[in-house]
Write a structure and sequence with these properties.
33% of the residues lie in helices and 16% in strands. The chain is of the alpha/beta class and 348 residues long.
Length: 348
Amino acid sequence: MAIASARPTVSPAARILVKEVNWLGDLVMSLPALWAVRQTFPQAHLGVLVREELASFFSLLPWVDCVLSYRLRSRSRWLGSRWELVRNIQAGTWDVAVLFPRSFESALWMYLAKVPVRIGVIADARRWLLTHPIRVDMKHPGRHQSLGWLELVQKALGCGPPSGSIPVVVPRTALPDIVARELPAGHPFLVFAPGAAYGPAKQWPVESWRRLARSVVSRGLGCVFVGTASERDLCDAIAQDLGRSAHVVAGATTLPELAQLLVHSRGYVGNDSGATHLAGLLGVPTVALFGSTNPVRTAPLGHRCQVLYDPPDCSPCLARTCRFGDNHCLRRISPEQVLEALAKLGSL
């Protein structure tokens, strides 16, 4: 199949499907590029293809016209679930597919679905599956990850830098029920996210979280711990001695409910994780704790964010687990530094 070299001609009213990335933090960092596509093609029918567990996030973005969610099965349903996905893409009669992930499989889906224009970065031996393969250094160590996706849509579609803030609509009418049942009405609270889906190398030590939480409670604030269901035990271990001032909702909130919880809070503290990126996007006063990863690449986007990072020589290692076994890079950040950062952001 011939590979086009020129920028594709895209109708102002085209049907454009963007294959989104697979982690909440990456998804949030890709939003400037998605918003740039919307601003460049305001009359287009803009859809996203996204994993089922992330689909509810797009209820916060009214400028996205269509959300096509999927769940890939394993073992006996491995092939069937993928063919079902290809058929669903094909049924949408999309004119253009823009692939934010670098994976071979995401390009294969669009190829098999016969989307006429298929745009993505050159990676993972998939060039022949794309009509418009674009050369972008997505792993450049000296620039923020969001800029790679912006470069992709600029080169492929002529999108300029997005103007204004990204519209995100979060209902502020009431707290999610699971939190409202626990917190006294009007009681101020901070949100803590001590987990990190990527691995324990990103996690601030439990004892540091406990010391921080005790200090926050002593100031008359509540602590709400969020995360996935697999992180509930971690949250319980931190909150166990805080009494009624601590509330663990890990695994019990949808993404829209998490957003609602964040906008009602006085501030947020978390590791380099999806919840941290969401808090930054929403304009919540955010303290982001970095150790094994590089904030130059993946700091949360937002004007009310403060990154704490005191790297030893081994950082950033980008590992899932610390090869020394003690997360030394994160132990260098003290609870007192976090409290000072929260105070500067006006959360205390």
